[in-house]
Amino acid sequence: MSKKRQVIHIHLDAAPKPVPGAPCNGCGLCCLLEPCPLGVILSGRRHGACVAVRWHDDIRQYRCGALSEPVAVLQRVLPARLQRLSPGLSAGLAPLLVGWAQRWIALGQGCDSRLDVNMLTEPLEDAKIP
Fold this sequence. Notes:
By secondary structure, the protein is mainly alpha-helical. The protein has a domain at 29-104. The chain has six helices and two strands, in the order ααββαααα. It has helices at 29-33, 37-43, 65-68, 70-77, 80-85, 89-104, and strands spanning 53-56, 61-64. Strands 1-2 form a two-stranded antiparallel ribbon. Strand 1 (53-56) and strand 2 form a beta hairpin. The protein is globular and about 50 Å long. The two termini are 15 Å apart. The mean pLDDT is 86.
């Protein structure tokens, strides 16, 4: 059985992926590969980076925007027409989004990603992906 190979563009300062079961270190690989169930709803897709994943320079980690910036995430994903009809909708829904995110990203449960990571050591255009 062959393994699926995919290039994921990740911040240079991101931590390496922890082993499964270890505490999350904000490496971002799982969210950059595909969205969680909540991310599927927010992104409208099952593959590719989640629209909610955010890089935080101050802590050099990726974080779920549904937790760290729920109003901004909702403003990005809710239809503009709906936001015009109810200007406070994003702020009103933010606590609900945070609750869903805590459940659906398994907050505090540790790394559940089984990705096999091979870091490229040369520019992508010159790299030969194994």
